[in-house]
Structure formats: C-alpha cells, structure tokens
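Hi there,

I know you've been waiting on this one. I reran it after we fixed the sequence typo, so this is the corrected version. Both the input and the resulting structure follow.
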Amino acid sequence: MKTYRLAFSALLIAVGTVSSHLIYIPVGVAKCYPVQHTINVLSAVLLGPWYAVLNAFAISLLRNMLGTGSLLAFPGSMIGALLAGIIYKRTENQLHAVLGEIFGTGILGGLVAYPVTKFVIGKDVAALFFVVPFLVSTLGGSILAYFILKQLAAHAVFKNLKLGVKK
C-alpha cells in the first residue's frame, strides 16, 4: 500500500511541477496555478492530509528551485491541501474537501501571503491583496479536481488505485 501511495504521490508532484510553467495566471508578484489546486484536492482525497501537504510543499519547492514559482506558493498550496485533507478524512465527502481547499488556499492562504510578501519579499501590498487572485486560482483547480474525482468514482478507479480510499 505504501509503495502505491509513494508512486502516485511522485506522479502528482511531477505533473504539478511540469505544469507550472504551462498553465498559470500572473497577478502582481504572485503566479496563480490552477493545476496545483487540482493536485491538492486529488492528493487530499486519494492519499490523505499529510501526503497532500508534502505534495504541495514538494511542488512549491521544485517550482521555486526551477524559477517557475514564487515564495507565495508555499502558504497558499500547503494550507489548502492540509484543510482539504483533514476535512475529507473527517467527512469522507469530496465536495467538502473541495470547499476546504478553496477556503484554505483562497482565504487563509491569501491572508498568510501578506506577511510573506511584506517581510520576506519586501513588497508593500494591501492585507487582502492576494485573497481574490488565490480564490480565482483555487476555484478553477478545485472544481476540476471534483469532476476528475467523480469520473474516477464512476469508473470504479478508486478500487484499482489500491490507495485505500473509499468511494
């Protein structure tokens, strides 16, 4: 079981890293990545909260190392992934996981991005500056993840993934 989880996690990290320079929306000093949010929800539902956070961290780290991301990728993606994973673990409801990702990344991640921008990056922005762009990015990616999960469930792929996730 652990081998399947690690392999699937590596696949999601690779897709998130490679897609970062292909699909993004530049907004000020931030870059919004809808694919990251899709991967956050998929990781949260299929792998669990800790894999979701580690996947988000790994993708953010690799994107920064490759020069295709910003420091704002860390708080937004990791908070959303954690909240989506925890909520899914408690409710086993995919829609709740999606809402957790949207609130975690869009609201909480957008708010945490302010001190990162001000004190680490050195740019002066309004406290709520990143909430709307983060919400736009996470809405699209989270909704896409929800449709992917519905298709996986409809075709009984959950059982074939051997990840121990319930339908």
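Quick highlight: The chain has a mean pLDDT of 86.

Best,
R. S.
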